Amino acid sequence: MIVIRLGWRNLWRNSSRSLITIAGLAFAFGFLIFAMGFSRGFILQLLRNGTELMVGHIEVHDGEYLPDRVLYNTIGGHDGTDWHAMVGRIRQHPSVRHAAPRVYAFGLLSTGNRSSGGQLVGVLPEAEQGLNRLFTPDVVAALGTGHAIALGERLALDIGANVGDEVAVIAPAADGTQGNELFRLTAIVHTGLPALDRSLALLRLGDAQALLALEPERIHEIAIGVGDPMDAAALAPDIARLSRAPAGAVFQGWRELLPQLSNYVDFARAINAFIIGLVVLFSSMGVLNTMAMATLERVREFGMLNAIGMKPRLIVASVLSESLCLVGLGLSGGLAFGTLMMAYLTTHGLNLAWLTGELPMFESRLDPVVKGVWDWNTIPWAAVSLTVATLFAAYWPSRRATRIDPVEALQAPVMP
Amino acid sequence: MGIAVLALGVGRLQAMQKAPLSPDDAKRIIDHVDRLMRGDSSRATVEMLVSTPQWKRSTRMTIWSEKTENVLIRIEAPKKDAGTATLRVGHNMWNYLPKIDRVVRVPASMMMVSWMGSHFTNDDLVKETRIIRDYNIETAFQGARDGTDVYEFTATAKADAAVVWGRIVYEVRQADTLPVWARFYAEDGTLKATATFSDYATMDGRVVPTRLRMTPQDKPGEFTEMHYLSLAFNVAIPPNMFALNSLRGS
Amino acid sequence: MKALGLLCVLAWRNLWRHGHRTLLTAATVSLGLALLLISLGLGSGGDRQMLDSAVQMGGAHVAVEAPGYEATRSLDRTVPVERIPALASALAGHGFGATAVLPRVFASGLASSADGSSGVSIIGIDPVAEAPFSAIDDHIVAGTFFGGSATNVAVVGFGVARKLALKPGAKFVLMAQSGGSGDIESMLVRVAGVTRSNAEEIDQSAVFLPLATAQALTGLAGRVHQVAVVLDDVDGTHRAAALLRANTGSEFDVLTWEQLMPSQRDLLRLNFAGRILVDLAFLLIIAFLVLNTLLMSVVERRREFALLDALGLTPVRRFVLVLLEGTWIAALSVTIGAAAGYAGHLYFKHYGLPLRRWFSGAMSAAGSSMDPVLYSALPTSQLVVTTALVFLLTVVLALFPSWKAATDADARFLR
Q1: What is the domain class of B23-226 according to CATH?
Q2: Do the Cβ atoms of B103 and A112 come within 8 Å?
Q3: Could you give the CA distance from residue A100 to residue A131 in angstroms, rounded to a whole number?
Q4: Across the interface, which of A115, A116, A176 has its CB nearest the CB of B55?
C-alpha cells in the first residue's frame, strides 16, 4: 500500500530524529518488559512460598473442618472415604500436578522434661514431593521409615531435641484414649514462617492415623498443586467434579485460604497497571513531539499535496502510518532489549540479599533472590496501549497537516 | 472448659436446722460440701465414665492425695490404659505413659487441655479451690423439693477472686448436708455446666455421694461421671509416693 | 559580563520564538518531576506509616534492655525502673524533648474464661504514657483503652476476645509464670477494651495490662524488661541511641528499631530500592524525550545559527546562548514541576490515597499492618535533591544542541 511505503520513507528522511524516538520507545517498552517480568516473578515467588509450604494451591476439606480443625471432621464425615481413589481421580485432571492427603491433630511433643504443644501433620512424603517445598529428597528419605518425625526448627529448639533424639508424641485420639507413641527426630525443617517453625511436626500418615485411632479411610485434607497458581480458583470446581468427592467436601483455592496474599496480588497488579499507564503517557508525549516536528518541517510538502488535491484522508493516513512504523520499530527494539534483560533475570534473578534476608509478608515469605518471569498477560496489553496511544498522539498533528493552506505553505522555507 | 473439681473433704455438720440459716451457717455448709471428699491425705478408687457423641469410655483409677499440694492418679483398667499415671506436685504436672514407658512434663500451655479425654482440664487437677475463700455465700431457698428438704445456696464470685465463674448454685440436702447438684454460671448469667451428685453411701465412716456427674451445657449428650468405688481418709502415705520415679511404680 | 546578561535575555526570547517546542519540553520535564515527587512522597510516606505502625503497636525506635534479653526473652533479665528518669533526661537535654520513654514488661501466659482458654502474650504498659503514641488505642473496637482507676483491667486482642467470648467488663483469669519463684500465678482481670489492629500477632494473642498489674503477676516489682523510646521523628533514631549508649555504658543493651524489628528494616530497604529503580527508569525515559525535542530544535535552527555566525556571534557565545536557553527551560520546568509535585504531595499528605479497593481485609507484613489510606511524606531534602537532579539533567541534555549550535553553522544553510 502506498500509504505505508510513504510512511516508511518519511520516517527515514530525518533518521537521527527517528532513531532517537525509536530508541526512546524501545527503552520504554524494554523497561516495561523488565518491570513486569520482575513484578510477576516477585508475586509468583510470594505465591509459591505461600502455597508451596503447607498450604496448597487448592485444598479439600470436610465443610465443617475449618477453622476449628476438630479431629472428627474428616473428609466424608465420620466414616471417612476412599481417599486413595479420590486422590487418583484428582491427579487425572490435566492441570493437576500433585495431590497429597493429610491428617492433622494438636498434640504434645516432649523430650521428657521439656515439652511443647505442636501441630501434628500426617503425610505421605512421596506425595508431598513437588507440592511442598519442605519435602526435599532428604526430608522424604528422613520420613521414609516408620516412627520418624520432622520438627519445625523453633519447636525442636524449644524442646531441646536434636536429630537422632527420641521424641514422645501424645495426642487425644479419636476413640477418647490418650494416643501416645515414641518417634525419632530424623529431620529439622525451616519454613521461614515463624508460626510454622514454632509448631510444625511432620510424620507419616499411617503413623498419625495409628496414633490418633483414626481408621485408614479417614483423612482431614487433600492439598492440590496445579500448573499455574493463578488458575486455581477457576480450576477448583472442575477438579471437584472430576474427583467425585463425598458430600460435604469443599474445595478452596489459595485466594480463600490466604486472603492477605490474595489482597497483595491484586494490589501489586494495580500498581503495575499504574506504571504501565505512566510509561505509555510519557511515550506518547514523545511521539506527539516527534510527529509534530515532522509535520511542521514538511509544511511546504503538505501544502503542495493539498494543492494538487490529495485527499485529506490520505494525508492523515500517511502521517499515521509513519507513526505506526515508529512504534513498530520501537516495540521490536524494546522486545529485543527486554529479552536480553529477561534472559538474565529469569536465569540468575535479582539478588536482593544486600537489602534483605528472608522476609515474612502477607501470609508468605520473600526470598532474597527474585527471578523474573515473562508476564505474557500484561506485555501484549502494554504493547497495544503504546500503539494506540501513539496513534492518538499522532492524530492531532496529522489533522493539522491537512489544514495547511497551500499558498502559505509554498512560501515556507525549504527544510533541508 | 475449666470446671472446678469438687475435691474430697472432711467432717460432717451435726444438727439439721429448721430455722432460717445464718450467713455463717451457710458458709459452713458450703465449706463442708467443698471439702467433703478431702482429708489430710486420702486414697480413692474411682471409675470414670466419659461419654461423647463419638465414644464412651470407662476407666478405673486410684487417686492418692496429700494436703492440697500433691496428687497421684494411676489408671488400673482397662488393660490398654493400665499404668498410665498423672503426678501433680505443687504447680508442676507430669504424665507417665506405660506404652512408651516415658515420663512427660505437662507444660503451662497445655493446662487448659482436657485431662484424659474427660471434661476436666489438667488445670482442674492442679488448682486448689476453696469455695468460701473465693465466693460469697447466700441462702437462696430453704424448703422442700421433690419430697426432700433442701437448701439452695448461691455462691457469687468475689470481686477479685481468680475464678472464671460468675456464680455457682448448690442444692444441698438439709438432713445430712450432702450436695444434690451444683450449677456453674458465667458472669453474664449463662449456665455453662452442671454437676450432679447421687448414690449416697458410707465410706470410711462418712456418708458421701459416690457418683458425681459433670455435664457441659453447650455439648448435649456429653458428660464425665466419677463413681467412687472406695474412699479412705487420713491414710498413711508411703514416702516418695509423690516423686517422679514413683510414677512408673507397680 | 554585560554580554552574558544580553545572552540571557536573548536566550529567554528565543524560547518563545519556538513556543510550542518550548512548552512541550517544559511540559514533559514538569510532568515528569511532579509525578516523580508525588510517587516519592507516597512511597516514603507508606514506608514511614508502616514503621510508625510497627512502633505504635508495642514497638520502639530505640530500646534499652538487660544484656541478652532480646535473644533469650528470659523473664529475669530486667532493667530497674529507677533508671528510667536518668535515661529520659539524657535524651531531653539534646533536643529530644517530645520523646516518650516507656516502661514495658513482657510475659507469656494463659487466659481462661467460662467459655474457653488460649495462650496469650502479656504486655505490661503505662497506659497514660502510651496512649498518645499507641495505635492499640486507636484501634479499640469495643470498650476503652484503660482509663479509670481500676488496676486489674486489660485490653485484649480481637482474636483473644473471640476465643474466650469476652466483652468489655467481662472477667477472665490470667495465669503466668512468676519470675522469682517459677510458680504459676493466677489473677482475675476484667476487660477494659478490645483492640483490632490487623496485626496478626496482636489480635490473636495480645493481652495488655497496666504495668503494675503485670509486675505483680510476674513477681517483677520495680523492674521492667524494656525501656522503649518513641521519637516523634524516626530520623533521630541513631542520635538518640548514641546518647543512651553513652549514658548506660555496657550495663544495658541499647537497640534501634532495625535490630528490634529486622523484618521491618528489610521491607523498608526493599521498598526503597524498588522506588529508586522505577524513578531512575522514569528519569531515563524523560531524558530520551527531552533529547528528542532538543535534537529537533537543533535541526530546525541550523539556518538561525548560520545567520548568527554570519552576524559575528562567536561559537563560544552561540554555545552559551543555547545552553542558557536550556537552563531557562530547566528552570521553568522544575519550578512548575516542583510546585505541582509539592502541591500533589500536600494533597496526599492531607487527604491521603485510599487503597481500600484492594485492602478489603487485613494486610500484615513484617509484623505490622498496612494502612488502608496512604499518606504522603516528602522530606525537604528529597524534594530539593530530586528537583536539583532533574534540573541538572535537563541542563546536561541541553549541552548537545549547544554544541551543535557552536559547531554546526554552515553558510549554506543561509540559502
Answers
A1: mainly beta
A2: yes
A3: 8
A4: A176
